[in-house]
């Protein structure tokens, strides 16, 4: 029996995916798996029993990844599960920014008690005249699951789409419309595009990537959309660009005092993936990842350990080992089983940065002595008997 704990309310659609071999607990110390959305785990004492954390969403800034890696705790996320919800709000934001719909709606609210509101609207509406998106150039920075969906939808709206992503995956490339212009220099997007939307993760290398230098290269009257992370953009610089007339609109999904209520800024209360469908999809994927890992030791969509899949074990035993990514580790593991006369029928070893993950299928169950010896090897974080 496996036990799981939910740090946040998790969609019932996802939780229904757990089979009879799983039980919810009220104390995280009793759980092998934790499901989380936005709750911060940085100050949390990680239980010794904890094997995995599944984030029902893409971002993992609320989880101490390095600390988990050192304890052999696998952290999963759910890339792409909420992509359609984010895509739809990005398209909506592009239309809101282009047509000045928000200011128009606010004018109607402010004049809602005026019996002449209809007649006055006909006179005032020219102040809210916007532009159409058809024929405009859209630049997409980051062609992951969301970026690709935005690109393909924009093509159907009659836009000329430019995409930038030096690390675009094979899957993303296959799903991307052939009509999207894939550029190799992000400056081409800054210089050519009328509307720019950013869809990259927040890393040291991307923090503040849209700053003074990038803004200076953009076309006058550019519209910038940010539904990725607020820190990707130097927002004080954006406010200055709007005030100077350089930028037409900035749409952000991340409220803060810098942009909230500022002229030219449309700030949305972090609604990007806040749809019933997105929450259901993320929860279902998180549960599936967690179950496959707990039952079989397989890792898919982990942010702190490499992907590994050996299917369902058909041998007598399966051992998983979390360790430093250094030389001679595999030799030591194999030698130990060889000394005990236990044949390794299948093996996989993958690394991710400074950590590595090894799975061994063996023809005889490993004794406690073998497991203890594996744990004592310098550089080993954790040894788990999967079967």
UniProtKB/TrEMBL annotation:
Catalysed transformations (reactions): (R)-2-hydroxyglutarate + NAD(+) = 2-oxoglutarate + NADH + H(+); (2R)-3-phosphoglycerate + NAD(+) = 3-phosphooxypyruvate + NADH + H(+)
Gene3D superfamilies in alphabetical order: 3.30.70.260, NAD(P)-binding Rossmann-like Domain
Coiled-coil parts of chain: none
Entry keyword annotation includes Oxidoreductase: yes
A molecular-function term among this protein's GO annotations: NAD binding
Pathway of action: Amino-acid biosynthesis; L-serine biosynthesis; L-serine from 3-phospho-D-glycerate: step 1/3
Name recorded for this polypeptide: D-3-phosphoglycerate dehydrogenase
Record organism: Candidatus Eisenbergiella stercorigallinarum
